[in-house]
Amino acid sequence: MSGAPRWTVASVHEALLAKKTSARELAQEFYAQIEQRNPELNAFLALCPDRAYAQADRVDAIVAQGKPLGRLAGVPVAIKDVISTEGVRTTCGSKILEDYTPPYDATAIERLERAGAVIMGKTNCDEFAMGSSNENSAYGPVRNPIALDRVPGGSSGGSAAAVAAGLSVVALGTDTGGSIRQPGAYCGVPAMMPTYGRVSRYGLIAFASSLDRIGPFATNITDAATVMSVIAGHDSNDSTSAALAVPEYAAEIEKSVAGLRIGIPEDYFGAGLDAEVKNKVQAGITLLERHGCKRVPLKMPHTDYAIATYYVIATAEASSNLARYDGVRYGLRVQGNTLMEMYRKTRERGFGPEVKRRIMLGTYALSSGYYDAYYLRAQKVRSLIARDFAEAFEKVDAIITPTAPTAAFRLGEKTADPLEMYLADIYTVTGSLAGVPGISVPCGKSAAGLPIGMQIFGSHFGEARILQLARGFEKAGGFSI
Ligand code: GLN
User: Fold this and answer.
1) To test the ligand 1 pocket, which listed residue (176, 207, 429) has its Cβ within 8 A of the most ligand atoms?
2) What is the mean pLDDT of residues 399-426?
3) Cβ neighbours of residue 150 under 8 Å, at least 6 residues apart?
């Protein structure tokens, strides 16, 4: 990195108004950085300079006219490659969509651009967002900018790495079981999964529709809050998006955290948790206590079942969602002598091993004779996990846990054992199943210099509260990037 101070949403805004830079110059500066760092990091799969410069010029024209600027005017943004962008190749990290260019923008993209954001390109990710290390991408892994021999986490590894390396000011990722929060933790940047239904999924290419969410990566909490206010809110194109007013989060979060009750579930601090991670998260909790938060010990007894439940439900939904890639309507087609052969060859050639594993698992869980034993039972356990959260939020304002059991692992370290890889999500999938919001904030580094993340869960649509805690932690010196 250049050593120059990082750009933030606020500093971009000020610099544009003071005419210290233009949106076009800023885009050029970021593209130069991307050109320099991306060959090593592999964070971006596609760049869209035409679109970026056209948007930058629109912003510069507004500055020249002295008209009010949008909240994200001129801010360079990176987008995970599972979110549709009109005219910009969107692969989902898969060979099956290698040549797919969406004919429309996702709602989140439309809202970002309406606020003046400059979309720079699409970021690498695990294929169809299935993974915890970014090693399941058909386009090669992403390297963690903090330690190049380590994974950036997954599945939104490219977005996390882009923000951590200063290749964009903010980024969008998606989270189904941890894919925003865990890479945020591994790359040392704040990363937020909103409540299910808070941000429209229109244009998000589906993995598991009852779990998928879009959310931001940023280098400070205020920027994450601003992006949230821009992308959240009801959308008639997504019937699961909530018709609730969206707070001006960046204003809400300056409130003091004194008096807030933070729940600490013992179930998240047991066997399997790395000692350094445990120490840093506990130190983070202590810092919040010193600023007036009240610690409340909690029990969330169904936590142990979350991984199994998640991997039944997520794979079942994936097996159904991915049925659409049949060589007829989208992406890759491998010819065959019969229609069946064409389907088979297309899917065999187009999907990678992890995606195939999940389609098989999910198809099995949904098959007649096994449905009751797996899918139905998993749905029941999902309700119990949601009830653990509902009961906890009768007693506390937020729940604090580690984001992941360890810091970033080495490339290749877990690829041979899918179960071990799945355990990287042990603390994040619970909130995914319950539908509640969660944010990962950096809370220090391991002795080896690897970032560690602290996760804050909130109640449904309680994003303001957890952003307020995250901001309180940041103001107290909990982290700075
Ligand atoms: N790592 C988890 C999985 O592989 C979560 C992925 C995600 O949140 N998209 O399913």
Assistant:
1) 176
2) 94
3) 143, 144, 186, 408, 409, 410, 411, 450
